[in-house]
Amino acid sequence: MPPLQVDVATLLEWGRIWRSDVGTPTAAGVPKPKAVNSFDKKQGMDFGMVFDTAFANALAAMLGDIPVAGQRRPAATAKGSIANDPGNLAATAITIGLGP
User: Fold this and answer.
1) Mean pLDDT along residues 4-23
2) Angle between the 41-62 and 8-19 helix axes, to the nearest 10 degrees?
3) CA-wise closest residue to 24 among 1, 6, 44, 54
4) Rg (CA), the chain
5) How far is the C-alpha of 3 from the C-alpha of 96, rounded, in Å?
6) How far apart are CA 79 and CA 67, in angstroms?
7) Is 32 in contact with 24 (CB distance < 8 Å)?
């Protein structure tokens, strides 16, 4: 299976969210407070989607480049976030080897 590719800028943005005390906004658009160095439930699910997508893409490549249905962009890569402005990053992706 090919290695997983995870964008460094996306991980940096998720790190910012992890370290903040701002949670997911309510239906009224008001962010709920959360403990620092944690995700609230929705943030945790969205963060997991980063790795779910990387795994799905690697598996699809291994199986003959089959299309991956239902891909979506995680919330941390929304317009205006640092994920869209990688700046001076030396690398743009992290490769996670799954072994032979």
Assistant:
1) 95
2) 160
3) 44
4) 15
5) 6
6) 25
7) yes
The amino acid at residue 11 is L
**What does the alpha-carbon distance between residue 85 and residue 72 come to, in Å, rounded to a whole number?**
19
Q: How many CB atoms lie within 10 A of CB 14?
A: 22
Q: What is the pLDDT of residues 49-71, one digit of tens each?
A: 999 999 999 999 999 998 887 65
Task: Write the DSSP assignment of 29-90 as a string of letters.
Answer: SPEEE--SSS--HHHHHHHHHHHHHHHHHHHHHHTTSPPPTT----GGG-TTSGGG--TT-S
Could you tell me if 14 and 50 are in contact, meaning their C-beta atoms sit under 8 angstroms apart?
A: yes
Residue type, 20: S
Type of residue at 89: L
Of the candidates 5, 18, 12, the one whose C-alpha atom is nearest the C-alpha of residue 87 is 12
Structure tokens at 99: 């072994």
